[in-house]
Amino acid sequence: MRSALECCDARKVFYVKRERKNGTALSRLFAMAIPKYEAVEAVDRLTFDVAPGEIFGILGPNGSGKSTLIRLISTLLLPDEGCIKVFGYDVVKERFQVRKLINRVSVDAAFFKGLSAMENLSYAARLYGLDRRTWQTEASVILERLGLESDKLYEPLEDLSRGMQQKIAVARAFLTHPLLLLLDEPTTGLDPVSKREVQEFVLEERERHGTTVVLTTHDMQEADRLCDRIAVIDHGKFVALDTPEGLKSQVSTNGNYVTLEEVFFALTGKTLKGHTKSAN
Amino acid sequence: MLEINRELRRSYALVERNFNLIKRYLGWEVVFMIYTVVNTLTIAFIGLSPDGSGQDKVLYLVVGALLWGFLSVLFHEVAESVQWERWEGTIEYSFMAPMRRLTYLVGVCLYAAAYGAIRTVIVMFAVVSIFDLDLGSANLLAGLVVLLLSSLSFIGVGLMAAALPLMSAEKGSQAAHILEAAILLVSGVYYDVSVLPAWMQKLSVISPATYTLRAARAAFLDAASFSDIRNDLVILLATGVVLIPLGLAVFNQAELCAMRTGKLKRSG
Predict the structure, then answer these.
(1) Most exposed residue of A11, A29, A97, A183, measured as fewest CB within 10 angstroms of its CB?
(2) By the CB < 8 Å criterion, does A76 face chain B?
């Protein structure tokens, strides 16, 4: 069976400005001889695939490469090396085909904040070529399912809470029935009830439409609850990839129960105080 | 045909979205409109002599102000389209939609032309209500054709300017404003280009607005026929035919560059 997502040795390097420290005139002179930019491996030769209908989680600390990977899959970034395919379509050579199959929810609900939810949804529906009757019917079902009150839908989004904005972003993504949905920290800023509503909705949509989901999150419970498999990413590399239970058993010693949070700390070498922990 | 219809419906997404934004910020729109009307009137009053004569000079200035008002809105809306998306944080969402970039840009240009035309008509009515302008002998059809042809060139230049914020978020937008100011200076919007220093006159030759203003003034003030302004019309048409594909090509290359360097995002 064809994979929903294939990532083959994908690599992305960014060139960021090197920090120049103040110092003596001599040290500043030496610094001028050093190149102004340094290479940072945001995604470091990742190879994995995701099966159709799978919910694939990506956990990692800030700056580990999660969002870069999502942007590579969503055709907003070109990989430097390797290939990424969505249902067999290459994200570089066939990006128009890929765009028809995907949608994305980013951590910051990207909207025209002066417009209402309905005006933003109308814009999105037109971009994706949906006719008015179809999208309005679909939207009302999705918005009701996500617990959004209809009287709020005509107010400017800037007047709504962050949680409500994020739910509308989720609704916008599902409106187009993507085969591959990219959720980049979709529940950040949601209260526990709203978070649970969104999670239930994702599971239902997967059940109903077979949607494949790639989810990045900092919420370990969410990852544990939703994901079939989880990859832990650090410095652009996957340091582990397994089912939630598989990851826990990798870290567990003497058969003790461990949480996904403990797995995360162990695999990324981080402690709560932010000090590097010695590798086991 | 069906495909074109479908793409045009998608283009309309941009038109509808931007008019919805105008409705949302209607108060500001009214303020900007009043400012533009007042600005045009003050320019027109410069041409009037204390004894009330000088209608020709007023018309000369009004034609310049109205045409520049339209063309600068057209240029500005097209050139700032990417920057707007960036400010609003929607650039990633809009650019990952399954919409051809041509369709997106057609939507931007349609909105810019409609918005510019509405603004220009409102200003024109305000000016006509204050000044007793005689347009009886003007060749209005020729004036309209000049406007249409020059729109093509300005869309082309606007597309190239729209590519600048893709490559550099802040500097790109600044460069677009400087380009707009330079066109205003050298094109003879409120004066004949012959009064410019020699080096500026050389620059006026490469500005499509120079030909627009010369031909439009000939049509409105001297009732010039199509054959009288044929040369300027041909230049404007040729410029548009060259600049639009060139603008699209530059925009596509800039988008690829932004995708390579990671600048196709909110903060750029």
Answers:
(1) A29
(2) yes
Place of tokens 């347009």: B135
pLDDT tens digits for range A106-147: 988 889 999 999 999 999 999 999 999 999 999 999 999 888
Prediction ipTM score:
0.88
Q: Is A265 a residue whose pLDDT tops 80?
A: yes
Q: Indicate whether A257 pLDDT > 90.
A: no
- Beta-sheet strand order (sheet of A5-17): A37-50, A5-17, A81-86, A89-90
Report how many Cβ contacts below 8 Å link chain A to chain B.
Answer: 90
Helices of type H across A146-184: 162-175
Contact A128, A121 (CB under 8 A): no
- Residues of B engaging A, defined by a Cβ cutoff of 8 Å: 6, 9-10, 12-13, 16-17, 20-21, 24-25, 88-90, 92-100, 256, 259-262, 264-266
Rounded Cα–Cα distance for residues A247 and B54 (Å)? 86
Q: How confident is the model at residue B267 (pLDDT cuts 50, 70, 90)?
A: low
User: Global pTM?
Assistant: 0.88
